[in-house]
Amino acid sequence: MIFNVFRQESEKHHSYVLFSSFFLLLVVCIVSLGSVAGSQAAEITVAWDPNTEATLAGYKLYYGTASRTYTSVIPIDKTTTSATVGGLQEGTTYYFAATAYDTTGNESDFSSELVSYGILAASNENGTITQSSLVEQGGSQTFYITPDTGYHILDVLVDGFSKGAVSSYTFKDVATNHTISAVFEKDNLQPIADAGSNQTVNEGDPVGLSGSNSFDPDGSIVSYQWIQTAGASVELSNPTSPTPTFTSPNIGLGGDALYFKLTVTDDGGSQAESTCMVNVTWVNEPPKADAGQDQTVYQGTLTTLLDCSASTDPDDGIYSYSWKQISGSDVALLNPTTIKPTVDLGSISSDGESLVFQVTATDFHGLQSTDSITVNAIWANLPPVAEAGPDITVNEGGTVTLNGCASKDPENGIKSYHWKHTDGSPVTLADPTAAVTTFEAPQVDSSGAILNFSLTVIDNAGLESTDNCQVVVNDSPSIDLTGSWQNLSINKNWITGTFAAQNIGDLDSGPVSVAYNIVSKDGPSFYKFPETILLSNLSAGQSINLQVKFKWKDTFRGQFIVATIASRDVSDKEINQENNEVWMMIQ
């Protein structure tokens, strides 16, 4: 007579099988389940308690994909009490049962059936999920989801339904096959805000701010927002434009420093801020901050001194200094309002790091200037060396090329470049993250302009270096046609006079015409002389006297004679055309 007994012990299912021909005790349980690394196959290990009957010859483990319909059998020696079944298909339900047999060939009935269910795990690239596995009926299995560096979990799907961006999920009381999949998404990198260069302007000047050199390393910037944070209040033309304008305010003799903050938002919702300063001057000129040369300090150095003693002011002197840390791990900055504050480097890790500090110099009338310094604390990796290239001189409107290709790193290479326009009239760089970038030199007056740029390079270990260069923009050579009335008189029926046609520019002109009109004091022209004087050219600085003679009319008295001088060569460049008309009243 055969008896089948079932009981639960230690959360495992055990089956006892007794034979009428001999006494044989068989206990079967699943002890491990898993996947074979690098394959689509799963394996399962089944174990049982040994039997001690003298007539025991061995065991047989049956399995298949339908209950009590087994398609495979594994004979097992009587000295072995476990078996591993490989090559199982992930995501498939398997049924297992065991028998025992004696030395005469008698075989027991099947044990209680054990069932394993498949949980098929999958993920896209850029992260991992616990491998697919087989789970015993009623058992539990936890899956762990881990994104790669620079990525995050976007969603986890269980049997096709979203569970959100969870980092683990546990299947409990498993009674069927399941699927679990993870989707990863690249982290949104923060945009880089650039509020443009600091500027110095006179009161009443038109001023342009420029955030055009802001960029997003993995997407695009979708919005700009400017606000004024300090100084005499001004009205921005369009605070949500990358390039708003305003008119500098009237200020006192000491001038005023206006501060503006730019906030940019990228297409992933991340934001970044940057500030710029506009010094409005009348009599007082702004200071020039100098944070000193970049520093490299080595392992074991606990402190270092910053030094802005090279800062200058052309007139009233520097009233105060203020240091602050603007990047890197937070460190203690001791005495930040002194010329030579101390930096505590004791907290820097053995990997080394780049720290950037900025000093603001304020003169006695409140005008300000800023400068920054990089301190590379190194233990093993040496910092890169930035090379912004030589200073450049260019004419207005010309294309300027900034070249940082001479920058180098002694060990692991340069990871990134970042050009920044630090001082002067705003310009837009073609690509502020390229080793070589270009821009168009702005229009300037006869005194020209100086533009300052910095290049920061970062190596693959995160250390950085900064170098500066200067671009001198000259007023382009151009013609400037004008003239002056030397004399004008009425003699009986004639008006005679002398008009001096002049080129006060610094470039020779092509052909020039001079025409005369009689214009009423109210503005409209009512008489045009039929003859136009043609000159072959006017050299730079040249003046030619032209004789004028025309019939007198009584209606001319009290009106104006206007000489209009103009170039007849379309290739001539003349920026100032406001002085091309020269008026003279007829007395």
Report on the structure:
The protein is mostly beta strands and 587 residues long. It has five domains: 1-185, Immunoglobulins (Immunoglobulin-like), CATH 2.60.40.10; 188-283, Sandwich (Immunoglobulin-like), CATH 2.60.40.10; 285-373, Immunoglobulins (Immunoglobulin-like, Sandwich), CATH 2.60.40.10; 381-476, Immunoglobulin-like (Sandwich); 481-585, Immunoglobulins (Immunoglobulin-like). 0% of the residues lie in helices and 51% in strands. A hairpin with a 2-residue loop joins strand 13 (151-158) and strand 14. The radius of gyration is 43 Å and the shape is elongated. The relative contact order is 0.07.
Give the SSE layout.
Elements: E1 3-9, E2 12-18, E3 27-35, E4 41-49, E5 56-64, E6 72-77, E7 82-89, E8 94-102, E9 114-123, E10 127-129, E11 133-136, E12 141-147, E13 151-158, E14 161-162, E15 168-171, E16 178-186, E17 199-202, E18 206-208, E19 221-230, E20 245-247, E21 256-266, E22 271-281, E23 295-298, E24 303-305, E25 318-327, E26 332-334, E27 342-344, E28 353-363, E29 368-378, E30 392-395, E31 399-403, E32 414-423, E33 436-440, E34 449-459, E35 464-474, E36 481-491, E37 494-503, E38 512-519, E39 525-528, E40 533-535, E41 543-551, E42 560-567, E43 581-585
Parallel strand pairs: 9-16, 17-22, 23-29, 30-35
Antiparallel strand pairs: 1-2, 3-4, 4-7, 5-6, 5-8, 8-9, 9-11, 10-12, 12-15, 13-14, 13-16, 18-20, 19-21, 21-22, 24-27, 25-28, 26-27, 28-29, 31-33, 32-34, 34-35, 36-37, 37-41, 38-39, 38-40, 38-42, 42-43
